[in-house]
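Async update (no meeting this week)

Hi team, since we skipped the sync, here's where things stand on the single-chain job. The sequence we agreed to prioritize is pasted below, unchanged from the tracker. I ran it this morning and attached the output directly underneath so nobody has to dig for it. Comments welcome in thread, and please keep replies under the output.
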Amino acid sequence: QVQLAESGGALVQAGGSLRLSCAVSGPTFSGDAMGWFRQAPGKEREFVAAISRSEGRAYGDSMKGRFTISRDNARNTVYLQMDSLKPEDTAVYYCAARQLAPFTTTYTRTNEYDYWGQGTQVTVSS
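Output:
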């Protein structure tokens, strides 16, 4: 059983930065592709960023140039560095794991992931 725990969400002013962390328990982290999604009230869950086992990366269009995803296999942790935050970035942010993924594949759809965390709230004030 894989468990994911996000942390780092907070209230921040527009233009500020946050780093989210997702700690993953389970034996297969280095074999997993990881992703971040977000969901604002009344909206569907939205792709934010993904990282493959080979550390290839993919980003949602509105996140490119502002967000950076990374992973530390020694710590079983994936990170999301968010810079130049905007009020429209306000949402609950979720991390997700796709087990035993191909080495270079990133995944951008919610139904491609096997496990999810409970989410962490990010609020950006104007």
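Quick observations from my side:
The chain is about 0% helix and 50% strand.
The mean pLDDT is 96.
Reply here if anything looks off.
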